[in-house]
Specification:
heterodimer; A: 63 residues; B: 163 residues
Chain lengths: 63, 163
């Protein structure tokens, strides 16, 4: 029996990474549930936003 | 000139007054749990149990402390990240001949029993051949690092450093 294989696109991999890391950061770095959610969302937006920004930067440099 | 905080409205004096009436508890100036904001009685028992349990099994440290919601989210996130890493044909570091391998192995070891079980079962690729497999390797390493953060958080909850 072969192991299941997951072949996401690069963007899907970025979103999944950002999602899981943001959940852990939010829970561990803040104390109240409200602040955990806010910080988690903040981290997620920064992860995905910076990935998109750097991707565009590399695209423009390569042209 | 000697400076004394005795009688001032510091956290230490407030807690001492609450615990033993008007008698201050730390005359010698030795560090106490109240100084760091720890809850009274939070230091009883083996304080490293949530840290060790959280490292061995993701989320177990929070479950021990009856933080069910936080534990479930941490456990789900770390497990999902680790399993997705394996499904993406990520590599499990098993030796440390180079500096980068040492760092990767340290990250993988953060997964605790997941890493040991995966090694025993022979999961994970020996070498990464595609970009996605390289991402999978990073997923596994980061899952281990996040698990260490979660275990330290459980320890902080146990000692009363965090509420």
């Amino acid at each position: 029996m072969s192991n299941p294989v997951f072949q996401p696109s690069h963007f899907t991999a970025v979103v999944l990474f950002a999602l899981f890391a943001s959940i852990v950061f939010g829970i561990t770095q803040r104390e109240t549930p409200r602040r955990m959610v806010r910080y988690g969302i903040y981290c997620f937006v920064l992860f995905v936003g910076s990935a998109i920004a750097i991707s565009w930067l590399m695209f423009l440099i390569a042209r | 000139m000697q400076y004394s905080q005795k009688g001032m409205a510091t956290v230490e004096n407030k807690n001492a007054a609450a615990n033993s009436g008007s008698q201050p508890s730390s005359q010698s100036g030795a560090p106490s749990g109240a100084k760091t904001g720890a809850k009274p009685g939070a230091q009883q028992g083996f304080v490293y149990l949530p840290l060790i349990a959280g490292w061995l099994v993701p989320g177990a440290g929070h479950f021990l402390l009856r933080k069910w919601g936080r534990g479930a989210l941490l456990s789900g996130s770390i497990l999902a990240m680790f399993l997705l890493g394996l499904m993406m044909q990520g590599k499990l570091y098993s030796n440390a001949h180079e500096v980068l391998d040492i760092l990767g192995l340290a990250g993988d070891l953060g997964n605790g029993l997941l890493y040991i079980a995966s090694q025993i079962l022979g999961l994970g690729a020996a070498q990464t051949q595609t970009t996605i497999a390289d991402y999978g390797t990073r997923f596994i390493v980061v899952a281990g690092l996040l698990n260490v953060i979660a275990a330290v958080d459980a320890h902080n909850l146990r000692t009363g450093r965090k509420s």
